[in-house]
Amino acid sequence: MLKKIGVIALTCSILFSVNVFADQKQVLEEEWNYTFEEEKEWLEELDVEDDDIKVLENLFNEALKKDTDEAWKNYDEYLNKLLPEDMEDDFDIEEEKEWLEELQVSQADMSALETLFNEAIALEEADKFDEADVKWTAYEEILEKYYDAFEFTFDDEVEWLKEMGVSDADVSALETLFNEAIALEEADKFDEADVKWAAYEEILEKYYDAFEFTFDDEVEWLKEMGVSDADMSALETLFNEAIALEEADKFDEADVKWAAYEEILEKYYDAFEFTFDDEVEWLKEIGVTDADIVALKTFYNDAIALEEADKMDEAEKKWIAFDEILDKYEDAFDEEEDYSVEEEKAWLKEIGVSDADIDTLVLLFNEALVLEEAEKFEEAENKWVTYDEILDKYFDLEDME
Predict the structure, then answer these.
(1) Region for residue 133 given its phi and psi (left: phi exceeds 0; alpha: psi -120 to 50; beta: otherwise)
(2) Considering the entire predicted model, what is its pTM?
(3) Predicted pLDDT of residue 234
(4) Residue 150: which pLDDT band, with cuts at 50, 70 and 90?
(5) What digits encode the pLDDT tens for the residues 356-369?
(6) Is residue 48 in some structural domain?
(7) Count of domains observed in the chain
(8) 93 near 117, Cβ under 8 Å?
(9) Residue-wise over 214-223: b if at least 16 C-beta within 10 A, else e?
């Protein structure tokens, strides 16, 4: 979400920066009190040199003072020399469509939005800004009805914050900042909202460092999918390059790497088709009724189909309904998880595990369970990985016999 807000903010900055003339300036100055500080932020994001920023600031302030087309033109000409050549060309309706689909915009409205978008851009390129504003207003009016229906709340954040190990105190602080930021944005107080988002990110920063996601976390399920060694190596390279680019705030370049990553995986997705039938056996074991299994299968297949159509928000609703059915079997889950170390020891002896390794495995087993109960799932996973590594040598021996 934060990334999207940043992209939208940057886009708006570009639209208000490039080709800004006197009539626009008056609106910005009187209605929005627009200053060069707002320009400076996104110029720094584009790595514009400090000396060039100073020149632009002087030209900007001079244009505000003189209030002439010529003064604004001087500013724009200098600015355009600093922007990447393909910056304006790169921004088109296709970049809008992804998040419009997330808003569940209808096909009819999508078509109308595309027409208005292209007309507005064409009018701006022809320096017909008043006419372009009419198109943008119509564009926004169509979107308004979707904004109301697409309410993003802090509850949507909580699950992954807990997965990152964010403390209850910090979750509470984040919720306060989140709600304040949203309220300020709804009141068009974007500068004040940015302060809240910055404080929100500062709290998260300490968890980002601790919650380092590496390619090693991917390897196990990639192997289960049968990914070849050559593709595994290529995926690791692309993964690490993408993460490095994201850390450098180069999200467009990172997206290219992720796209290449997904292209490699696509051929394995087709071969590794996971269906609801793979779920049925353990659902029956925990006592799920036939009626609930039918309902779960419907939600499961709907969710998968929506994900394949990139309708992630709709898919999420199906998964929530899926989980709600499972929640009533929570007691059965607890019974399943109440697997004791004594039961573990019995089958370890059956497969010929040495006493020394059994002692180590029992220790790891208990530590992993304690960590899971404390919701420290990453640390628990490390224990299970070590546990599996010890067991692997015994499974290999069984295979050889």
Answers:
(1) alpha
(2) 0.33
(3) 92
(4) low
(5) 888 888 888 888 88
(6) yes
(7) 4
(8) yes
(9) eeeebeeebe
